[in-house]
Amino acid sequence: MEAWIDQLLPLLALPKFGLSTVFIISFISATLLPLGSEPAVFGLVKLNPDMFWPAILVATAGNTLGGALDWWMGYGAHKVADKYKHSSHHTRVLAWLERLGPKACLLAWMPLVGDPLCAVAGWLKLPFWPCLAYMAIGKFLRYFLLTGSLAWAFPGLVHLGG
């Protein structure tokens, strides 16, 4: 099994392209397209252990900018569909998000709900820059914790600097 994983990781990380690939995959995975960036981040770190922090930061930047794109798409959709009537469930969810404000974007890292959450933040016209800051914090913590956990699970794999 481990040999199979060792063969798969170079393909997922695309080491020939490195950080630019991590950025693009992280950006695309933050949009509403179903794509996960974690395998590319971990693959790059496995092949280049000294790239732990650059990979985390580049993935965070790409994923945050993808979240920003979601915000703008939601903002634009709201302008188009201002007169749309919401069901009671949608109304409760929107009220909860309005009450939480930009802090709700801390949850932008979550699978399935995180990307649409960024779009809804734009739809609700929540302040862009605070939303972007909270997205970045949540996404950084996700990449740091996931990649750090994998590094812990496979000791000797990653050199964290120093």
UniProtKB/TrEMBL annotation:
Pfam families: VTT_dom (PF09335). The keyword Membrane applies. Residues 52-148 form the VTT domain. Keywords: Membrane, Transmembrane, Transmembrane helix. It comes from the Bacteria. Coiled coil: none annotated. The chain crosses the membrane at residues 52-73, 140-160. This is VTT domain-containing protein. It comes from Rhodoferax koreensis.
